[in-house]
Amino acid sequence: MGMRDGTERYIEAAELLPFRWQRAAKALPAEQKGLAEEFRLRAGHPVTVLLPEGELPLDGGGLRVTAGDLEQMCDRLTGYSRYAATETLRQGYLTAEGGFRVGVCGTAVMDGGVITNLRSISSMTVRLNRQRIGIGEQVYRQLYTEKRLPNALILSPPGLGKTTLLRDVIRLLSDGTEDLTPRRVAVVDERGEIAVMQQGEAQMDVGRHTDVLDGCPKAVAIPILLRSCNPQIIAVDEITAREDLAAMAAAANCGVAMLATIHAADQEELRSRPLFRELLEQGVFQKTVTIRRQPEGRTYTVEEL
Predict the structure, then answer these.
(1) C-alpha pair distances (Å), 98 with each of 64, 208, 281
(2) Which H helix or E strand runs over 199?
(3) Disulfide-capable partner of 233 in 46, 153, 257, 297 (CB 3.0 to 4.6 Å)?
């Protein structure tokens, strides 16, 4: 498989930047390249790279990001056809080649109270999704009790690695271990960030017994996977819509285990939001995995719901 290490993924992400910033990005020390989490571009300021200790400005020789830099970058990411990317752009992001997610801010174009597009781009964020083999070991064994996987939600605020953890748990479930047999896992990769598919091949290790349907909304993809792949487990990223909940409830009623991620700091925040409260009332999920950033690094806490 075309797996990438941390430094290679960093270089791939750096090549998405405006041309005049690429040399400064690639000059970062190798250790920092391996730890980098995001590139952040804001009009009127230097490009910064987000490291565990905070944002570090890149040495661009006094350069500042211009509106032209951001427009050029948006054109390149959309293949010079922004119209084709309107659906995701109006939601504030683009998906770049290689599975990189790029957040976009600017002036919202409104129509009847609905955002239809973004113009006058003011900032962009390139998130470096990368493989971290082994981070799911502890979570995997706490979840997978009595040779059965409960329906589980991975919780954290944005940027703490929900997708990275989900990916490694998928890999472990799919490959199995000496004492736990492999499971058939179906992945709904709506934004192309979990498996990072290119020409039908996953660029991230999601296991030998995993089927991936990417670029498809969860509510549409889950019934397709149930019919076509006979999965034992279905994994999805970022529950955001009521339609997602209905599809997952239907799959759970078919005896399929569900894994999903949600933006929430903890169970208390989960219960405070109407959509997620509805999710809990349906009783589909039995456990949560909460990611927290501590001085010693990220921690993963498995709890009953």
Answers:
(1) 26, 21, 38
(2) none
(3) 257
